[in-house]
Amino acid sequence: SLVADDYVKTSISDDQLIGRCKKDYMGFMEVRGIGIVNIVNLYGARAFVPECPINLIVELRPYEDLNQVDRLGMQQKTQEVLGIDVPMLEIPIAPGRDTARLVDVAAMDFHLKNLGLDMAGKFRHKLHDNLRDNSN
Question: 125 φ, ψ to 5°?
């Protein structure tokens, strides 16, 4: 669900970082080449929430930075916001890459990690076991 486009007001409530949209801009988003769109009108009421906890920061990076970002999902970066360290991912983007889907996958993977399902960690363990077994 969209909270805000570009400008997110942040505050702390019960030691949790909260993101809110400025009231005048609720539900609106700029889509380059199209203009200002109303997310609720396009996708329904569930596509917008006026506020929510900020659990993950996704930084979209130029595709040229591909070799500078964590490719295996093993490093956990954070960014401090109002004194709270928030997990952060960097995703290289380029024409033809489905940015919305990449962000969605990143959010689902983050959620699964919080539930104890670390896919990158499982892969690392399988790879390590395979290397160990093949070296004997």
Answer: -65, -40
For residue 9, count other CB atoms closer than 10 A to its CB.
Answer: 13
Give the count of alpha carbons within 13 A of 127, CB side only. Answer: 7
Nearest CA to 65 out of 87, 89, 86 is that of: 89
Please give the structure tokens belonging to residue 32. Answer: 């380059």
Q: In angstroms, rounded to a whole number, what is the distance separating the alpha carbons of residues 120 and 75?
A: 10
Q: Of 28, 78, 27, which is closest to residue 54 (Cα–Cα)?
A: 78
Contact at 8 Å (CB) between 9 and 20?
yes
Distances (CA, A) of 69 to 72, 117, 118, 121: 9, 22, 18, 17
Strand intervals (E) in 14-135: 16-20, 28-31, 35-38, 51-53, 57-62, 77-81, 84-93
**Digits of tens for pLDDT over the chain (136 positions)?**
788 887 889 999 998 999 999 888 888 999 888 999 999 999 998 999 999 999 999 888 888 877 777 766 677 899 999 999 999 988 888 888 898 899 999 999 999 998 998 888 888 888 888 888 887 6
